[in-house]
Hints:
- The protein is built from ten helices and seven strands.
- It is an alpha+beta fold.
- The strands form two sheets. It has a five-stranded mixed sheet with strand order 2-4-3-6-7. It has a two-stranded antiparallel ribbon with strand order 1-5.
Amino acid sequence: MSFFSSRSLPGLxxxPGLxxxxxxxxxxxxxxxxPASARADDSFTPAxxxxxxxxxxxxxxxxxxxxxxxxxxxxxxxxxxxxxRTRDALLAHRAALTTPAPTDAIxxxxxARTTVVEFYDPRCPYCRxxxxxxxRLVHDDPNVRILEKVxxxxxxxxxxxxxxxAAAALQGGHDAYFRMQRAxxxxxxxxxxxxxxxxxxQAGLDADRLVSDMxxxxxxxxxxxxxxxxxxxxxxxxxxxVFDARYVIPGAVDYDGLKAAIDKTxxx
Length: 268
């Protein structure tokens, strides 16, 4: 899984950290050891606070499982909070995650009843690895469509290839989009403008127009819209798959994993 960086794409920030409640014992010890001015309740005397802290410390030494239980509780709380945040974000952006945008390329039948959104970076090795599974998925299941949203998160080379893919769609629609996508995502040479020109020609595209469109406002708007949606649903890396705006699989997933998620979406 390739992770977002706040430096990867202007306007894209990493998701804020989670806040969780501390287990009672540790929370009490931290509260008691804080300065009096930082506590809302100063009902304990200094001697009482010292005694309580000593009791908690002795309990931790006597039964180390208290600490492991506290860590488990923290993790469970963080996971629950993350699940709630993700669910709320998907609900708030359901329309954008189930209705194709004009700039989306659609893999599979456009009117399929199950919508999978893939956020991907053309330079991400895990995104490249899953390409054959996506082709197989829409071939085997005519009721699945995959909305492709390219987001460059791995630096200048990613930006260049993402621009090339988006620019290809401007001159040839979905067919040109996927031809250029395959060209750049199966290429092992680090891209530059000359390489992009060559790949465009090999894909049957007008290379001069493509390079011109790459620097144009339409391509910039497409990448910005994809990045804003990714940030809105708290995406943390590529690839990430969203199933009917209900379930999310972050990171690499194989054909069987994709099928299982689609089945879950349809039966729950």
